[in-house]
Amino acid sequence: MKLLTLNFLTCARKTCKSAPAAFPLHPKEAELEQVETDLNALFITNMLPRLDWEAMKILTTELGLPALPTETPAPEALLADDGAPSQVLRDLHVLLMETSIASGRLECGSCGHGYAVKEGIANFLLPSHMV
């Protein structure tokens, strides 16, 4: 499960849908893996406005990854003067596209329910008593 995906997930319980603490889900006992992919500058540039930057900062801190800048990088900062990818763009690519959670769990900050992640896939099916 790519870290980018975590920016779009919340707890599946109905009672948590309106709770601000249900987002982002907090990774616990997470085993990270890196899978190298080609850099797609246009994709990263288009995704930046859609990201909840504060949630991304929380995730990187909880996972022990290098801290993100305090503000979302401007699109102009992603390419160098010669049109080559900047270091900021390369770092964002590694974080969002190459870093994945291979196993562990994602925990809701509101209800505390944990969603298991196995082989990079999160199980969001709730037991019948929680639906």
Please explain how this structure is put together:
The protein has 131 residues and is an alpha+beta fold. It has a single domain, classed as N-terminal domain of TfIIb (Single Sheet). The chain contains 4 helices and 4 strands; from the N terminus they run αβαααβββ. It has a 4-stranded antiparallel β-sheet with strand order 1-2-3-4. It is elongated, with a radius of gyration of 16 Å. The model has no long low-confidence stretch (mean pLDDT 91).
Q: Please mark out the parts with pLDDT under 50 across 5 or more consecutive residues, or reply none.
A: none
Q: Please tally the β strands and state the result.
A: 4
Quaternary structure classification: single chain
Distance between the termini: 24 Å
Spatial arrangement of strands, main beta sheet: 1-2-3-4
Mean pLDDT: 91
Report the top-level CATH class.
Answer: Mainly Beta
SSE string, helices as H and strands as E: HEHHHEEE
Number of structurally distinct domains = 1
Beta-strand proportion: 15-25%
What profile does the largest beta sheet have? 4 strands, antiparallel
Radius of gyration: 16 Å
CATH topology: N-terminal domain of TfIIb
CATH architecture: Single Sheet
Q: Assign a percent range to the helix content.
A: 25-40%
Structural class: alpha+beta
Helix count? 4
